[in-house]
Amino acid sequence: MKRKEKAEKIVKILENYYPETPIPLDHNSVFQLLIAVLMSAQTTDKKVNQVTPELFEIAPNAKLMSQLDAEKIQSIIREVGLAPTKAKNIKKLSEMLVEFHEGNVPNNFEDLEALPGVGHKTASVVMAQAFNVPAFPVDTHIHRLAARWGLSNGSTVERTERDLKKTFPKELWNKLHLQIIFFGREYCPARFHDLTKCPICSWSATKKRIKQEMKSTTNSK
Known about the structure:
Helices cover 62% and strands 0% of the residues. The chain is mainly alpha-helical. The chain folds into two domains: 102 residues, Endonuclease Iii, domain 2, CATH 1.10.1670.10; 100 residues, Orthogonal Bundle (Endonuclease III, domain 1). The mean pLDDT is 94.
């Protein structure tokens, strides 16, 4: 099956499973979305949603957040992975938004990626979900599934993003990246996954890939 044909079938399956794609991180503004996405690195969305209510009640915008000490921010988000570094980035990021952007989150990749703690993936999520700009944020789920499904060779996240953008229509990117994440979490886990029974892997993964993962699963037990 050609990659484009495979992509069309995947889109139909994911649309059937996830016709609605709510953003999994709780927020009430673009600024809060940015902070939540920044915190989600190496941390579950569930954990981020547990700590952000207190933080956003105290500092719902960049101006108020910039007035908090990094230590105070860290004490609130302490259960989040890499909390000390993230707290410092949130503090500095907020100061920069106030100083250079009138407290607003910029709506372009260059300015977003210039902010502390904001890499390309975080910027892509904000551009896609807050500003509706076509982007294809690649997290660990998407990187892994793209390789399993034969849509990319999985060598780097950058390569995966390029391959997926070439494979899927631009108008689907923003919704599709969430659909793939949801599917990965619910039906296509990283470990102990039987590719032969998966709604997508069973027909999209190569025999070589299936054999490799079955061997890996057997060796890890």
